[in-house]
Design brief:
Strand content: 15-25%
Radius of gyration: 20 Å
Protein name: Arsenite methyltransferase
Pfam families: Methyltransf_31
Number of helices: 12
Shape: globular
Organism: Cyprinus carpio carpio
Oligomer: single chain
Strand order of the largest sheet: 3-2-1-4-5-7-6-13
Family: Belongs to the methyltransferase superfamily. Arsenite methyltransferase family.
Order of helices and strands: HHHEHEHHEEHEHHEHEEEEEHEHE
Largest sheet: 8 strands, mixed
Enzyme class: transferase
Helix content: 25-40%
């Protein structure tokens, strides 16, 4: 995978950037369209300041209910997200940070013992390994071994996204989740030749329609959008280079469901048991479950709630009616993130890009 794009990425994040202030724009950012979980906010406060200092501008990507999970962070950088995850998975959980740059691996490993002691663990639950997202087995990550894979504005830095998504699918257990933020746009191939555009994630942004196609081809569930942000270019030089190309950042969650899951609708009732979500559990921008309120859902959502780590948080009654409407997945999932931003209105923030 030693392509020119990889070389640009390694140089940009390994050698050229020392802190987030060195970024030419804050393009690679996802502002949350809903508040962070309380537990995630508390964990972030415990992360060493030097780790946060070398964090390169992406929003925190933390799903719910991680206690005891094994989690992989693709493109772990300084390790900030990994250490937040380390706190949330608890001492019985495990966090693996994967990065392709020696500099980032060395920088993140320095604080393993610090966070072990900070969280009161008897032994570390976090490791950092060098490797490529396209070759996870080569990095020692086994198939069907992970509960959750997260990625924070890093897949846009990889030229072969199909292989990256396939690798994530392979290493996840059945019922596992890919939870990630990235940038989306319809960009010309010529952008890939610009090291700054590539390093900022703008040259490798995926076209949103391709995301849905990729996930379906590989075997994942339909992508469920959690959050979205419009990206506005203010840096004059970047603006000149990108022209009228429009960017949006979005957080999606996608599940690896059993191939033989029952394709019928279901009546589900949330028990109020997901940590930090006692009154309401917002699975995505289209599905919000209030405690003790029965809701009828389509076949795929029923399969998600029945076969993932959230299965014990719902009472589920399968209905006799088959789900003949294949578009019964969240109505916004098949739309452009730009249209989603318009539909969700004030719940979607605007991410401003300025030069430093």
């Amino acid at each position: 995978c030693r392509t020119a794009c990889h070389e640009n990425g390694r140089n940009y994040y390994g050698s050229w950037l020392e802190t987030s202030d060195d970024l030419q724009t804050n393009a690679a950012c996802v502002m949350p369209s809903r508040p962070l979980l309380k537990s995630a906010c508390e964990a972030l406060k415990q992360v060493h300041p030097d780790v946060c200092k070398r964090y390169f501008g992406c929003g925190l990507v933390i799903p719910e209910k991680l206690e005891g999970c094994t989690v992989l962070d693709l493109g772990s950088g300084s390790g900030r997200d990994c250490y937040v995850l380390s706190k949330l998975v608890g001492e019985r959980g495990r966090v693996i940070g994967l990065d392709m740059t020696d500099e980032m691996i060395v920088a993140s490993q320095k604080y393993v013992q610090y966070h072990q002691e900070q969280f009161g663990y008897s032994k570390p639950n976090t490791v950092f390994v060098k490797g490529y997202m396209e070759k996870l087995n080569d990095a020692g990550i086994q198939n069907n071994s992970l509960d959750v894979v997260v990625s924070n504005c890093v897949i846009c830095l990889c030229p072969d996204k199909r292989t990256v998504i396939s690798e994530a699918y392979n290493v996840l257990k059945e019922g596992g989740e890919l939870y990630y933020s990235d940038m989306y746009a319809n960009v010309p191939d010529s952008f890939k030749e610009d090291p700054v555009l590539w390093g900022e994630g703008m040259a490798g942004a995926l076209y949103w329609r391709d995301l849905i196609t990729l996930m379906n081809d590989i075997g994942f569930s339909t992508p469920h959008m959690v959050a979205g942000s419009q990206i506005v270019v203010h840096n004059p030089e970047i603006q000149r280079k990108t022209g009228d190309v429009k960017y949006v950042s979005g957080t999606y969650r996608i599940f690896k469901l059993p191939q033989n899951s029952i394709k019928t609708r279901a009546l589900v009732t949330y028990k109020g048991t997901v940590p930090d979500c006692a009154e309401c559990f917002e699975l995505d921008a289209s599905h919000s479950f209030e405690t003790n309120v029965p809701v009828e859902v389509g076949a795929e959502m029923a399969a998600i709630l029945q076969n993932t780590r959230f299965s014990t948080d719902f009472n589920i009654t399968m209905l006799d009616t088959p789900d003949t409407d294949q578009s019964s997945t969240p109505q916004y999932c098949h739309l452009s993130p730009f249209l989603l931003a318009d539909k969700l209105g004030s719940s979607v923030k605007q991410c401003s890009k300025t030069g430093h």
